[in-house]
Amino acid sequence: MTVIYLVLIIVLSLLFALAIQRQMKYYPALTPVTGWLAGLFYFIVLPLTLIILNQGYERPGYPQIAGMWGKITTNSNSFLQPFLMVWLTLALTYLTVIFFTPRRIARNKKTSQSIEKGMVSIFQLKKIILSSILISFIFWGINIFLLGGGLSSYFSQHWYYRFSEYSEQLGRIFTLYLKIYSANQIILTAATGLLVLAALKKQWNKNYGLLALAFLTLLLHMVMSGNRIYIALVLIYSLMGIYYYFGFKTLFKSSLILAPLGLIFSIWAYIRSNIANLPVALNNYLIIINQASSRIMTTLMDITEGSDSMMLIKVIQEFGNTYGFLYGQTYLRAVTWVLPGSSGLHVDSFSIVLAKIYQPGIPSSMSSTALGEMWANFGYFSIFLMPIFTFVLMSLGHYIQKHINKMVLLNSYLFVILIWMARSVFGDNFQILIVSILIIWGMRYEKNLYYLSEGNKIHPASSSGDERALPS
Predict the structure, then answer these.
(1) How many Cα atoms within 13 Å fall on the side-chain side of residue 239?
(2) Taking residues 421-433, what's their average pLDDT?
(3) Are 464 and 448 in contact (CB under 8 A)?
(4) Using CA atoms, how far apart are residues 23 and 254, in angstroms rounded to an integer?
(5) Alpha-carbon distances of 449 from 53, 125, 265, rounded to whole Å
């Protein structure tokens, strides 16, 4: 069966490559659906490939969950049906992009210029990045000194439970506070991604200091929050940009250069809960990793968030059999979170639903990728719903590309958040998306950010441009 699985994985990988090539053919920039496809491939296809090559996998250091979801074997019949459902859904999703990508966008009738000749204003981008960094530091100050009781107290607490008390006391107000914080971090990630793309195209005035400051802030976020996702997102963004503009060979070389970062991210997953006592945390990591049957396999599964794909298989096996379908309840969270609790419409995030089932008695959250949530809600209909959702994303991306001079940051933002949405839950990300759009609009981040060029002339898409913003 391993050979058959690998053949199907190769076919799926080829479909992914063809879908990306289709987008590259018709659009000169990374599109939202490209981020979505990349997220599905990174968080679902890659981990499943590792599991198949290893003929199964068991998470080390967690014997209490092995029987629940932490162990998977590919030689059993229980793996075949979930794998085929995942394969068919993703294959149809990639085929949707291959066959239904809208044709090349028309030239701008007002300026008679092509989008290919546009570029981002580094001056404006610098203001966005610096503003986002400043907001990040304000949030960290509040989190550490007002909510966390000071540096020592803040870092001595488990990263996941630091704000549990405030969340219970303040409810939706504190939830909104956290959404604004997350929205600002994703905007910073998207802006950093734009700066990386400008650097790849040599349209960035060699702002090494700005780039270093942006990456340093994302790393600081990882330390402050325990969450490594934003630095991971900007790295995936960068790799996709390299593939888009320089091809597979350069992508492969760049991946090898960035490989050591993967080991750091893997270690971080084990030590982030006790960074106030790093020697003890590192010792615990070594104990756990030494229990693994393969350290390389464990590291690769950590890098690709492989536990989510394991949970995806479990969800397909059990929802509709052991557990009933949710029939869209967790998707309603996208709107019901703003309603008062007395309305009776409060719905737990799907990550909380999973934790209550598979880690009972332990306050936590779990993920099974976007497909896992879709399956738990709609079962076999997910095979068609995910391609339909992808088609909607393509249509949205096509509209944004036609109006890129007013939506270049939004385009980058959607690319980033859709990578993450492929791994996470819909409702929470949709909430953050709405908050982010309000921030982008309220802060006027899009104004004069994109420039159109004609011959040797460069001018802003808006007539109120500032000459200092012109990139070289």
Answers:
(1) 21
(2) 92
(3) yes
(4) 22
(5) 46, 7, 33
User: Three-state SS for 85?
Assistant: helix
Residue 423 DSSP class? T
Determine the pLDDT at residue 273. 78
Assess contact for 349 and 427: CB atoms under 8 A: yes
Contact call for residues 385 and 85 (beta carbons, < 8 A): no
Sign (positive or negative) of CA dihedral 95, 100, 104, 105: negative
The amino acid at residue 383 is I
Closest to 32 in 3D by CA, of 386, 410, 440, 370: 410
Per-residue pLDDT reduced to its tens digit, 56-111 = 998 886 655 545 678 888 987 889 999 999 999 999 999 999 999 987 654 444 43
Count of C-beta atoms within a 10 Å radius of residue 134: 12
Dihedral, CA of residue 458, residue 463, residue 464 and residue 467, to nearest 10: 20
CA–CA distance, 342 with 189 (Å, rounded to integer): 37
Return d(Cα 134, Cα 426) in angstroms, integer. Answer: 28
Stated length of the chain: 472
Nearest residue to 37 via CA among 81, 95, 85: 95
pLDDT at res. 458: 44
Whether the Cβ atoms of residue 86 and residue 48 lie closer than 8 Å to each other: yes
Answer for the pair 26, 101: CB distance below 8 angstroms, yes or no.
yes
Phi, psi (degrees; rounded to nearest 5) at 428: -65, -40
Contact 291, 42 (CB under 8 A): no
Question: Are the C-beta atoms of 50 and 428 separated by less than 8 Å?
Answer: no
Tokens of 178: 């956290």
Alpha-carbon torsion angle 330, 335, 337, 340, nearest 10: -120
Specify burial of residue 257 (Cβ count, 10 A radius: 0-12, 13-18, 19+). Answer: exposed
- The owner of tokens 């068919």 is 88
- How far is CA 75 from each of CA 1, 65, 68, rounded to the nearest angstrom? 7, 20, 18
Q: What single letter denotes the amino acid at residue 217?
A: T
- Tokens 């597979």 correspond to 248
413: closest CA among 192, 232, 244, 122? Answer: 192
Measured in whole angstroms, the distance separating CA 376 from the mean position of its chain's CA atoms is 21
pLDDT in tens, 331-360: 988 877 666 654 445 678 899 899 888 888
What is the spatial distance between Cα 116 and Cα 452, in angstroms, rounded to a whole number?
A: 9
CA angle 360, 365, 368 (to 5 degrees): 105
Q: Rounded to an integer, what distance in angstroms lies between the CA atom of residue 282 and that of residue 302? A: 16
